[in-house]
TrEMBL record:
This is EAL domain-containing protein. It comes from the Bacteria. Residues 182-431 form the EAL domain. The lineage of its organism: Bacteria, Bacillati, Bacillota, Bacilli, Bacillales. Pfam families: EAL (PF00563). PROSITE patterns: EAL. One of its GO terms (molecular function) is cyclic-guanylate-specific phosphodiesterase activity.
Length: 436
């Protein structure tokens, strides 16, 4: 899971902090570590402003103490060395005798959890608000893959210059976190990715007049009763940790291999616009996976959700065109909400237009929503797009959508998500909430 390149700048103060840590390693860092971690106290400058220098110094002493205690109790085969940058910033070098990535990850994230818990116990005793940590772990193999040429002036040569650039990678990855990730969530995320414990559900998409199935949307859940069971939580943590593409790749593979649809039905698979950064997606990985099944490319609908505005629109449109040329179909999700607006609709001209559930909720009571739904249908008709209403929960909503000319829909009224992997042979009609 290579770290993604980011636009986080490296200030002179940060360079000075890294140099300070490197100066301390110059005499004893004779072999490169297997991984470099960076961790810091989130909003540390705010803490100092609010509570003064005396309490801040006490806090920093506790911070240093907990760092030493937590990392010294790690795996005996994993050697850990901690170096201070400036104030709260710390760099951690990890070496494992077997070079085992999982051991290094567990050592690092388990220590992070202990540190955060111990610091918050100390702060509670001092009647101070709890803190959170920002952190990231960069592996040498990933660094080598992503680092082609130095773009940051480094006051070192050879081995020390490599460490300098590597530490910057870890620093940038930590700073990329808009909000800190709870260590337990990070550990669970790693376990999900390593063990493949996501669960795939399918929800039927029906013709609103005949109730004939158009296909299924593949939905994802984390492990049952875990902190990351809810799909939005899991996706959010994966995005903060920089492993969204890895998670999406796993979801696509599982959805395709677990699918049980006949040759007339579609399989809707969610992807994010960030997929343009995934080399394996561009290289035809999905097409290769399909060849292992009975599915055809025209049965697969890539459902694009814009949680954020698309940064590289021309590249995104090129990718859409590329996959259409291979026979795949395209849907735009959540139309009428967030970033999924008319510009994307007209630029992409998707095969399917999925109307956001917030627009559908109580649509029978709101003439304005009804007019918006009709307008989306009329625009979609111009380029041959099929409109699908999401989140239908009542018969009143269903009847109103039918009157608005919306042809297809999905929602709890029509059928709840069904766990595909545990399913054997079944009667398709039993899936639906409305008798067919």
């Amino acid at each position: 899971m290579p770290l993604l390149q980011t636009s986080v700048g490296i200030s002179n103060l940060t360079r000075l902090g890294i140099r300070h840590a490197l100066d301390r390693t110059h005499s004893n860092a004779t072999t490169r570590p297997d991984a470099v971690g960076y961790l810091e106290i989130s909003e540390f400058s705010t803490f100092e402003l609010r509570h003064g220098r005396v309490r801040t110094d006490e806090f920093l002493k506790e911070w240093t103490k907990q760092l030493c205690n937590s990392f010294s109790n790690g795996d005996r085969d994993c050697r850990v060395t901690v170096y201070q940058a400036l104030d709260d910033g710390m760099y951690v070098y990890l070496q494992d005798s077997a070079g085992d990535r999982q051991t290094l990850e567990q050592t690092f994230y388990s220590a992070i959890l202990k540190i955060e818990q111990s610091l918050n116990t100390f702060l509670k005793q001092s009647e101070l608000p709890e803190c959170h940590l920002r952190y990231a772990l960069a592996f040498h193999d990933d660094f080598v893959k992503t680092h082609t040429a130095s773009t940051t002036s480094a006051p070192f040569e050879g081995f020390q210059e490599e460490l300098f650039q590597w530490m910057i990678q870890a620093y940038r990855a930590a700073k990329r976190q808009s909000t800190p990730i709870h260590p337990l969530e990070h550990v669970e995320l790693l376990q999900i990715l390593e063990q493949g414990t996501i669960r795939i559900f399918e929800q039927p998409i029906l013709n609103l007049r005949t109730l004939d199935p158009l296909g299924h949307e593949c939905l994802m859940r984390g492990p049952s009763f875990s902190r990351l069971e809810a799909p939005l939580t899991l996706l959010s943590i994966a995005e903060k940790a920089g492993v969204m593409l890895h998670l999406e790749r796993m979801i696509r593979q599982r959805a395709i291999h677990n699918a049980k649809v006949d040759d007339r039905m579609k399989l809707f698979i969610n992807i994010s616009p960030a997929i343009i950064s995934d080399a394996s997606f561009r290289a035809g990985e999905t097409l290769r996976e399909l060849k292992k099944t009975q599915l055809r490319p025209d049965q697969i609908v890539f459902e694009i959700t814009e949680h954020h505005a698309i940064a590289e629109y021309s590249s995104f449109l090129h990718l859409v065109s590329h996959y259409r040329s291979q026979g795949f179909q395209i849907a735009i999700d959540d139309v009428g909400a967030g970033h999924s607006g008319l510009v994307t609709l007209m630029q992409v001209k998707p095969d399917y237009v999925k109307v956001d559930m917030e627009l559908i909720r109580d649509i029978h009571l709101d003439p304005v929503r009804q007019e918006i739904a009709k307008a989306i249908r009329q625009i979609s008709d111009r380029f041959g797009g099929i409109v699908i209403a999401e989140g239908i929960e009542t018969r009143e909503e269903l009847n109103c959508l039918h009157e608005c000319g919306i042809e297809y829909g999905q929602g709890f009224l029509l059928g709840r998500p069904f766990p595909r992997e545990k399913e054997g042979e079944y009667n398709e009609q039993e899936r639906f909430a409305i008798p067919m």
